[in-house]
């Protein structure tokens, strides 16, 4: 890849008072009202993104006053263990102080386990439990809601919608993060500008799953830049990237910072050249601050703590070696003492300026009420449904495999139980088939949700924290989006099996059968959602089937309900499969079904459906009660899943 030294200001042309962006029309620039157009004298080295267009222009200056972050006596105490084993408190941050001024690219460095991510989480407001101390924004105590409106958090792992193209992802973000009053053209202009800024202009129509690691990282940043945040928190933005992508990523952040944003990122051990790109570093070890100040002032600091940096040694490597106690524990203590756990401002680039920061007059923090999201609930639902539809259309597992599995299983069972429905000798076989059908609906839908939802969960946590949508609207969209496909799969399955196994050809019976099957699908799916929302894939895969076994036992299939011991009878009320079984058996053998055909030379024990129903102790006249019970199960499990999700979103913070 060719590296090009670029002078951004040379590409900015002032026309009619508006800035022309990379050949973008005046009209477009005109439309981008939310972005201030201030030509920057920003010299940056940029990689060619493959478009052959190296002229990437950074012109998205923030539209409100800059944000200075100051923190005092910050502690973070994690609670470990369980109620059974007893809970332990573990202090991770020990009364650290610091100042992160606006317009700077700031690195939080330190060895693994030093508390970098913990500090980032506390400052961004992601962690709220176990936090002590004060975070001041422009000198005022941080009001979390208001602060979240101006900031964003970019996670270490790229939590992106892989089945959407770059452009679709950006449009979803714009539709959710920009006020509804923003016109389509305005949104398009903003998206084009950001994508071209971040070197993604050439990948608009590429599916995210096909992007390189560096491009995914830039897309993660691009998605949040849509709302033009003043503060960006990034957890290890360079992890997993090759050196040129690392450089490109930091260069972009540096330019965004130079426009007045406050950019804080955690970083492990940058190379000497990457280290020099930061304006300020904050070094942590064991939850205490070892150094805070400019990158250039680190060498004098090492001398002040009587640990001069060896010649030709990368200061970033050296400080980590010191922090890891490679030169002794006393060196760490000395550094904490000289830095005064983050209170010493002597090593900042311009200490006089830092003394002033945090006392900027600010009016933007008065409002801490109202919605966190930028758009109405209805709009959120609309955008999420649209995204869900695109995903479903392209998802091979969730959509095509599901349709195929339903059709193939129906064909297989249909062949195995061919014509069993009208054969008086095969009534028991047919009864087994009915239970197998319920098992198919239960496991195929429940397991799919358990296996796929945890991936969605990580995206939900990120997007919800970054205020894309409310949990209620997300949940409503998840519930609604799957209904058409569930209905379609269930209809295909039921039609094939009903026809092949020659169940009574009667519209009422078929509809009763289909409705019961569909309700079982919905209940099993909600059950899977509840498990998937709380547990990881491994635990969920174990728990889902394990918890289904008692439901099967109490369904009245193996042991009839009549033979259930009275002290266990309650189990049948909480088994949704009992109502499912009652519903399908009622559809096939109820409604006063006449005598079943019996071949002349054979004995048919269950020629008379009434006798069969008596023997298996299944009531056939309970269809409406079964439907009510299944709908209730569906509703209760969906509500519980929502509560679990809400709890989970709260618990991770
Ligand atoms: N919720 C928690 N419960 C228990 N321990 C925690 C919790 N959060 C963090 N820790 C512990 O606190 C320490 C600091 O964690 P943190 O993730 O902040 O480190 P880090 O400096 O970002 O490390 P790395 O660079 O390896 O990501 C670690 O020992 C970690 O195990």
UniProtKB/TrEMBL annotation:
InterPro entries: AAA+_ATPase (IPR003593), ABC2_TM (IPR013525), ABC_transporter-like_ATP-bd (IPR003439), ABC_transporter-like_CS (IPR017871), ABCG_dom (IPR043926), ABCG_transporters (IPR050352), P-loop_NTPase (IPR027417). It is found in: Membrane. SUPFAM superfamilies: P-loop containing nucleoside triphosphate hydrolases. It is a multi-pass membrane protein. Residues 69-311 form the ABC transporter domain. It comes from the Eukaryota. Residues 16-26 have a biased composition (Polar residues). Keywords: ATP-binding, Membrane, Nucleotide-binding, Transmembrane, Transmembrane helix, Transport. One of its GO terms (cellular component) is plasma membrane. The chain crosses the membrane at residues 400-419, 431-453, 474-500, 512-535, 542-561, 627-645. Residues 1-27 are annotated as: Disordered. CDD domains: ABCG_EPDR. SMART domains: AAA. GO terms for molecular function: ABC-type transporter activity; ATP binding; ATP hydrolysis activity. Belongs to the ABC transporter superfamily. ABCG family. Eye pigment precursor importer (TC 3.A.1.204) subfamily. This is ABC transporter domain-containing protein. It comes from Dendroctonus ponderosae (Mountain pine beetle).
């Amino acid at each position: 890849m060719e590296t090009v030294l670029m002078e951004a200001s040379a590409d900015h042309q002032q026309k009619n008072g508006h800035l022309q962006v990379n050949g973008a029309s005046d009209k477009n620039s005109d439309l981008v009202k939310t972005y201030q157009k201030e030509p920057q004298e920003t010299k940056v080295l940029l990689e060619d993104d493959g478009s052959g267009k190296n002229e990437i222009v950074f012109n998205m200056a923030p539209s409100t006053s800059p944000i200075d972050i100051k923190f005092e006596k910050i502690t973070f105490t994690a609670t470990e263990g369980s109620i059974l084993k007893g809970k332990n408190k573990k202090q991770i941050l020990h009364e650290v102080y610091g100042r992160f001024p606006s317009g700077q690219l700031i690195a939080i460095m330190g060895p693994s386990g030093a508390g970098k991510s913990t500090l980032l989480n506390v400052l961004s407001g992601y962690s709220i439990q176990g936090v002590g101390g004060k975070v001041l924004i422009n000198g005022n105590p941080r009001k979390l809601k208001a602060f979240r409106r101006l900031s964003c958090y970019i996670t270490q792992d790229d939590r992106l919608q892989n089945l959407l193209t770059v452009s679709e992802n950006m449009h979803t973000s714009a539709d959710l993060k920009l006020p509804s009053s923003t016109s389509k053209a305005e949104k398009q202009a903003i998206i084009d500008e950001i994508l071209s800024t971040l070197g993604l202009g050439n990948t608009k129509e590429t599916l995210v799953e096909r992007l390189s690691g560096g491009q995914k990282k830039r897309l993660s940043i691009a998605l949040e830049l849509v709302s033009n945040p003043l503060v960006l928190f990034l957890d290890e933005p360079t992890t997993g990237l090759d050196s040129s992508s690392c450089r490109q990523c930091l260069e972009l952040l540096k330019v965004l910072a130079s426009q007045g944003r406050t950019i804080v990122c955690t970083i492990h051990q940058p190379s000497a050249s990457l280290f020099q790109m930061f304006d300020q570093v904050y070094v942590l070890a064991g939850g205490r601050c070892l150094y805070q100040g400019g990158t250039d002032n680190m060498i004098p600091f090492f001398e002040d703590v009587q640990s001069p940096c060896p010649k030709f040694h990368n200061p970033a490597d050296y400080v980590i070696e010191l922090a890891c106690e490679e030169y002794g524990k006393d060196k760490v203590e000395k550094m904490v003492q000289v830095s005064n756990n983050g209170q010493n401002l002597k090593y900042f680039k311009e200490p006089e300026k830092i003394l002033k920061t945090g006392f900027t007059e600010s009016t933007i923090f008065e409002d801490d009420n109202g919605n966190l999201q930028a758009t109405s609930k209805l709009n959120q639902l609309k955008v999420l449904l649209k995204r869900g539809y695109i995903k479903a259309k392209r998802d091979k597992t969730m959509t095509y495999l599901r349709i195929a599995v339903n059709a193939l299983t129906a064909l297989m069972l249909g062949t195995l139980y061919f014509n069993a429905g009208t054969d008086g000798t095969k009534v028991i076989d047919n009864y087994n088939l009915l239970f197998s059908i319920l098992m198919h609906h239960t496991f195929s839908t429940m397991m799919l949700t358990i296996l796929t939802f945890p991936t969605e969960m990580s995206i939900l946590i990120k997007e919800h924290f970054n205020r894309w949508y409310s949990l209620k609207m997300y949940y409503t969209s998840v519930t609604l989006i799957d209904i058409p496909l569930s209905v379609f799969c269930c209809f295909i399955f039921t039609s094939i099996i009903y026809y092949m196994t020659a169940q009574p050809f009667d519209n009422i019976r078929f509809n009763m059968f289909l409705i019961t099957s569909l309700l079982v699908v919905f209940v099993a799916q909600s059950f899977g959602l509840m498990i998937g929302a709380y547990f990881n894939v491994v635990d969920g895969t174990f728990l889902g089937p394990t918890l289904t076994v008692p439901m099967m036992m109490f369904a009245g299939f193996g042991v009839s309900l009549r033979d259930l011991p009275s002290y266990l009878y309650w189990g049948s009320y909480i088994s949704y499969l009992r109502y499912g079984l009652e519903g399908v058996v009622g559809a096939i053998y109820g409604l006063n079904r006449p005598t079943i055909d019996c071949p002349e030379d054979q004995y048919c024990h269950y020629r008379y459906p009434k006798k069969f129903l008596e023997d298996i102790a299944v009531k056939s006249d309970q269809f409406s009660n079964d439907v009510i019970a299944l709908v209730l199960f569906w509703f209760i499990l969906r509500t519980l899943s929502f509560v679990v999700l809400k709890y989970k979103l709260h618990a991770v913070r």
